[in-house]
Structures are given as structure tokens and as C-alpha cells.
Amino acid sequence: MTVTITSVPTRISAENPAWIRLKTAAQALQALQSQDGSVADPANHAEARVQVAAITDSLARLAPLVPHDADYLEAAAADFRTWAGEGDGSESAGFGVPDFLNSLLAFQPQLQRRDGLQHVVVFPMYTQNGSSSRLVEAVLIEVIWPDFVAELESGDYSNRLFVPVRFLDFTAGYDTNSAVLFPETVAVRQTPAFTWGAIFADREAARFRRVLGAAAATTSLELPDGAAELLSDQKLTEATFVMWDLIHDRTHMRGDLPFDPFMIKQRMPYFLYSLEELRCDLTAFRESVRIEKDEAADPEARRHAKLVQYAIIFDRIFRFAITGSRVRNYDGLGGQLLFAWLHQHHVLHWTDSRLTIDWDQVADAVIALGATIDDLYWRSIDRPKMAHWLAAYQLISATLTPSPASVWAKGPDALPVAGPPRGLTDQVLDDEFPLSMFYEALEKKMRPVIESTAGITGTSDV
Predict the structure, then answer these.
(1) Where are the alpha helices (DSSP H) in 190-329?
(2) Domain ends where: 171, 195, 219?
């Protein structure tokens, strides 16, 4: 009798020689590229071809270790050779604006979401909150897909595009604050239909843990047991963020929406993005409360549902509110709004230089804010665009105090409502809702901690 033994591919580590060669070549190409991804100087083409050869050879060596990506890696190598102008007989040809549409279409990580499944990803792309240039970037990642998340996704929280991942290694564009790998960042000749979006849950979890620990100490906040557990367990926090992101991500296209809440390719006041991102987070909070109370739900899902509630509140009021510049910072504004709402509903207290939260009242207050935003959206289905904008501003300014220099704060009579919508957008200040005195003081104390989270991963010393 013949016994067939199927070998399991060896995992790729950051020390794998082929991976190191690929990463080194990608970084060498970055030094030769222009912002649009081209290698503009013909004098650099010979060196660029050397680096492209190193990348294609490395991909061939790595391919047997990630057989599920065989088609993608083959297409990527072909796209690199085409970009280099191979086969056209001209030494000077090649290295224009890169086009990696073929390999992008071949990369479909959402089709095999298995915990620990690895991917080698290399594209010319910009990185959100990282590099704004379409440089060759390479990331070595693995999927995070706990059983309880798979069960949630197969039931009421379907999201076929969602791929949560963990960093194993990366090039310079990801040694930043970027925590997403999105297909729309890749250099292509035409925009395809996007079928996946990857979130680095390990980076989100590590940032959260570092910031929350410092913020709790700074504000003398006594953390509830579940939140304290997140501080001590990176893997637990990663799974919590995967559950949060699963529900958040799917919410963008669900609910009573004023057509497209993002109004893609349209210029609009940044505070509308604040409300949309906050709406998705508050939906995740509300659904987590529901799951936590569902005695028929998976015990792990119920456990993580409570942790998601802590993560949303603390990430929003601590990290989001004081991270980034004060130039149209829509995530920062959402964090400020949540903090002020909880404070003005008397469930969050800053008294005697100590922060306390009445946890038995928090869920009702947070869900009420979500319901207020949901009602704004529902009513806006029947409103003109500018009327929706004005109503959204009124919702926020009922809780947050606008800048004294704001024209919007003076109301419709002070705004050019008779003209095109861009006239209203132009009147929005970069910092329409400045930080409160509480946040001004907190930001100064937390600034070094916030800055230290750039490039952080799940293996960093949190």
C-alpha cells in the first residue's frame, strides 16, 4: 500500500532570506521612484532593473510557502517585469507610472480567511497615514480569524470584504501610523470593483493598549476588570478589535442612509465624516450590547462583546480625540463629541482632577447618541444636501462648542446658502470645534505617548 504524505509549507518569518531580499529590493526601488511611482531618471533604470529582478526571483522562492497566493505572486512578477519594460527590446523603455491591475485582481485574500494564513504582498502603493507616494511597498502578514468571529460573520454580521490581519514585517511606508491595506491605494490603469479591505488589528490593539494605559494613569481612572484585562493581553485585544472592525466596516453601507454618507469624490464639510465614522462605531457598540445580553450567543462572542464596548469608548475618548493635527481631523472630532456627550449626560465625570465613569449608565447614553445620529440620517433622506449639512452641524454644536471665529456657528443667515455647496464647505474652519480645556491639558501630557505608537505592532513592547 502506498502512503501519500502531504507536507505542510514552512511558515515565512521576517528572517527568511527570500523575504529579506524582496524587502531590501523594494526599499531600494523606493529611493529611485517619483511620487507617481515612476522611475523618472533614465540613469536609474539599470539599477531599478536589478531590484526588480531581485523581487521577481524572491517571489518565485516564496511562492511554494504560500500556495494559496500562487496566481497573485505570478501576476505580481509579470507586472514588475512589464513595468521594467522587459521584452520590448529597448534599454530606455520602462519604469513609467506603474500599473499593477492584473496582480491586484489576482490577489483575493477575502476568499480564504483562516487564522494564521500568511500572505506576501508587494505593490506600488501609497499608505494611508503613511506615505502619500505610490512607492513599492512590501508587507508580510497573517490573517487573524478567531472561531467566534467566523461564526458572527457567517450569521447576522456578514462582511465578505473584511480581512483582519497581523504584521510580521513591512517596508518603510508601514513604519508609520497606517493600519490598513486597501486595494484602492495600489497604482492601476483603471479602478476595479474592490472586493476586500485589510485591517491591521495587531497595530490597532497595540496602540490602544499603550495609549489607554498612559491615559488611565494620567487621569487617575480606575479601569473596570475587562478593560484592565485588555491592557495585559495583546491577543485578546486583537480579537476584540477584529469583532469591532467587523461590525463597523459593514455598517458603512447599512441603515437609513442619505444615499451615500461619504458622498464619494464630492467635497463636503469634514464634520460629516466625523458623524459617519462615529455612527459606525456606535452601531458596533449597540450590537455588542445586544450580543453580550444574548444568552444563546457563543460564550466567546459574549465575552468579547463586553470588551468591544470598553475598546470603543476608550479608544474614541483617549486616542482618537488627541491624535493627529487640528486640520479637519474628523476622527478627533468624533472622539471629542463622544466624551462631551457622556459628560453632559452625567455618566462621565472629571471631578477633583480624577476621571470616573458610571458604567451601569454608559450603555444607555452611548446608544442614545447613536440613535440621535441615526435619526439625523433618516430625516436627511428627505432633505436637500445643504439642509442636511446644517442639521448635522446643529447636532454637533448642541454638544460641542464651535470656535468663536466660526461663521457656521452664526447660522444660515451668515452662510452663502444661495450659492453652490462648496461655498459652505469653504467656510468650515480647519479646527471648527477646538479642543476643550480638558483635552488641551490631556494632549500635552499624552503627546509623547501618542507619537511613540507610530510603527507599533503586536510584538512591540507596549
Answers:
(1) 201-219, 225-232, 234-251, 270-293, 299-314, 321-322
(2) 195
Place of cell 491605494: 185
The boundaries of the domain holding residue 100 are 17-195
Q: Give percent above pLDDT 90 in the chain.
A: 92
Q: Residue 8 falls within a domain, yes or no?
A: no
**Residue range 383-398: mean pLDDT, rounded:** 96
- Print burial letters for 309-321: b (CB count within 10 Å at least 16), e (below 16): bbbbbbbbbbbbb
User: Is residue 11 included in any domain, yes or no?
Assistant: no
- Per residue in 157-189, pLDDT (tens digit) is 999 999 999 999 999 999 999 999 999 999 999
Are residue 73 and residue 140 in the same domain, yes or no? yes
Q: Are 79 and 104 in contact (CB under 8 A)?
A: no
- Which residues lie below 8 Å from residue 66, measured CB to CB, with a gap of 6+? 9, 12, 73, 118, 119, 120
User: Do 181 and 168 form a contact (C-beta atoms < 8 A)?
Assistant: no
Number of domains in the chain: 2
Whole-prediction pTM: 0.94
Identify whether residues 241 and 186 lie together within a single domain.
no
